[in-house]
Amino acid sequence: MFLSAFASIRFDPASHAYYDRKRAQGKRHNQALLALAHRRLTVMFTMIRDGSLYDAPVPEVA
Questions:
Q1: Helix 29-50 and helix 13-24, axial crossing angle in degrees, nearest 10
Q2: What is the DSSP letter of 60?
Q3: Could you tell me the pTM of the whole model?
Q4: pLDDT tens-digit series, residues 19-53
Q5: Which residues of 17-52 are buried (b: 16+ CB within 10 A; e: fewer)?
């Protein structure tokens, strides 16, 4: 999951924003990356539990 989180920072804007928020909170790179991996695991287990597919959030227009 660590590598998945690392790759998602580059290709998923929502993951990148989450990582940036954790860094702004003072977490080091590895701590922010592990927090992102934990969040992704939570989403995956919820999808398995509910039998649903991933639906990416729609970005808000500023």
A1: 130
A2: P
A3: 0.81
A4: 999 999 999 999 999 999 999 999 999 999 999 99
A5: ebbeebeeeeeeeeebbbbbbebbeeeeeeeeeeee
